[in-house]
Q: What sequence folds into this?
C-alpha cells in the first residue's frame, strides 16, 4: 500500500551547504514525510562558490537505483515525486519514464516538478534540456515551480507584465498542469519580489515579498526550499492560498535568520556566509507564522 507521506526526491547533493536534497530533506521530514533522496550530482558545494567539484550521476546509475527499488516492490510506496536540478538530458528523459512507473505503482502519485534551467536571463543547464522539460516532463507534473525566466523558456514568450503571467499560467493549464507557482518575479514594486500562483479551475493569487538583505544579496537554495515546503503544505492543507502563505512564511523566517547572522561591515559577502540557516529554523518550519497574505486576483 502507498505510504501516506513518502517522497522520492531527485535533486543535487552538496557536501557543504544547503541546496537541492540538502535543503529539501529536513523540512519535509519535520513536516512528517519520509524522504528518499536520490542524488543527481554530489558536489563539494553549490555552483555559486569560486569552485565546485564532484561527480555527476548518469542515466545508467539512475536506472540501476530505480531497478533496485522496483525489484523490492518499493515504487508503490511513494505518495510524491519531487525533482529539481538535473544537468543531463538523458538523465532527465529517464525521469519521464520513472514518473510513469511510479504512477503505475500508485495512481495517486503527486509529481512536483521544479524545472531548473536558469535565472535572470541566464541558462545554467545544457540547452537540450528545454524541449525535454517542455514536451516530455512538464505534461506529467501536477505542480510546477518555474521562475520567471523558466516560464519564458517553456512558453516561448516573454513575461514582462502581470497580464503575461496569467497568459503563461493558462499555457500550462492547457497542458493539464493543475498548479503553477512562480516563486519570485521582478514584476513587483522596487525592493519587492512578487510571487504568483494559479490553479486550474481555481484561484489566481499573488504575494508581495519585501526583499531582505539588500539588492546585491542573493540566496541559493531558496527555490529548492520553496518547492519542498510547497509540496509538504499542499498535502495537508486544502486551501491553496494557505499553502502559498505558509511556504513563504517559513522561507522568510529562514532568510531573516540568515541575514541576521551575516558578518557586519560592507565587504563582499562570501558564498559560505550566505548559506541558509535551515536547521536553526526548525520552529518556523514546523509552525509558520503567516505575515504576508495572498491577494486574490
Ligand atoms: P528556482 O530558481 O529554484 O526555480 P526562484 O529563482 O524563483 O526559483 P528564488 O528567487 O530564490 O527562487 O525565490 C524563492 C523564494 O525565496 C521566494 O518566494 C521568496 O520567498 C524567497 N526569497 C528569495 N530571495 C529573497 C530575498 N532576497 N528576500 C526575501 N525573500 C526571498
Ligand atoms: N543545485 C546545485 C548544485 C546548485 O549549485 C544550485 C544553485 O546554485 C541549485 C541546486 C539551486 O539553487 P536555487 O534553489 O537557489 O535555485
Ligand atoms: Mg533560483
A:
Amino acid at each position: 500500500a502507498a505510504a501516506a507521506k513518502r517522497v522520492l526526491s531527485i535533486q543535487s547533493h552538496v557536501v557543504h551547504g544547503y541546496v537541492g536534497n540538502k535543503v529539501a530533506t529536513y523540512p519535509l521530514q519535520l513536516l512528517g514525510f519520509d524522504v528518499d533522496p536520490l542524488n543527481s550530482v554530489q558536489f563539494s558545494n553549490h555552483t555559486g562558490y569560486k569552485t565546485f567539484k564532484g561527480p555527476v550521476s548518469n542515466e545508467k546509475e539512475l536506472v540501476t537505483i530505480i531497478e533496485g527499488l522496483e525489484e523490492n516492490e518499493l515504487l508503490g510506496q511513494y505518495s510524491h515525486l519531487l525533482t529539481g536540478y538535473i544537468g543531463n538530458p538523458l538523465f532527465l528523459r529517464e525521469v519521464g519514464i520513472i514518473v510513469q512507473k511510479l504512477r503505475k505503482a500508485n495512481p495517486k502519485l503527486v509529481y512536483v516538478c521544479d524545472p531548473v534551467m536558469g535565472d535572470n536571463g541566464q541558462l545554467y543547464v545544457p540547452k537540450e534540456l528545454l524541449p525535454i522539460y517542455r514536451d516530455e516532463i512538464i505534461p506529467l507534473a501536477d505542480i510546477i515551480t518555474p521562475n520567471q525566466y523558466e516560464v519564458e523558456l517553456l512558453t516561448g514568450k516573454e513575461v514582462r507584465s502581470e497580464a503575461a503571467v496569467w497568459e503563461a499560467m493558462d499555457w500550462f493549464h492547457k497542458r493539464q498542469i493543475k498548479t503553477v507557482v512562480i516563486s519570485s518575479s521582478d514584476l513587483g514594486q522596487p525592493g519587492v519580489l512578487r510571487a504568483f500562483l494559479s490553479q486550474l479551475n481555481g484561484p489566481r493569487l499573488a504575494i508581495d515579498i519585501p526583499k531582505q538583505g539588500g539588492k546585491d544579496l542573493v540566496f541559493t537554495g531558496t527555490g529548492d526550499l520553496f518547492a519542498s515546503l510547497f509540496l509538504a503544505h499542499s498535502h495537508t492543507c486544502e486551501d491553496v492560498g494557505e499553502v502559498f502563505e505558509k511556504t513563504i512564511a517559513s522561507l522568510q523566517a529562514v532568510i531573516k535568520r540568515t541575514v541576521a547572522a551575516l558578518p557586519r561591515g560592507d565587504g563582499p559577502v562570501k558564498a559560505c556566509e550566505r548559506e541558509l540557516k535551515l536547521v536553526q529554523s526548525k520552529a518556523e518550519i514546523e509552525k509558520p507564522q503567516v505575515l504576508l497574505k495572498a491577494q486574490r486576483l
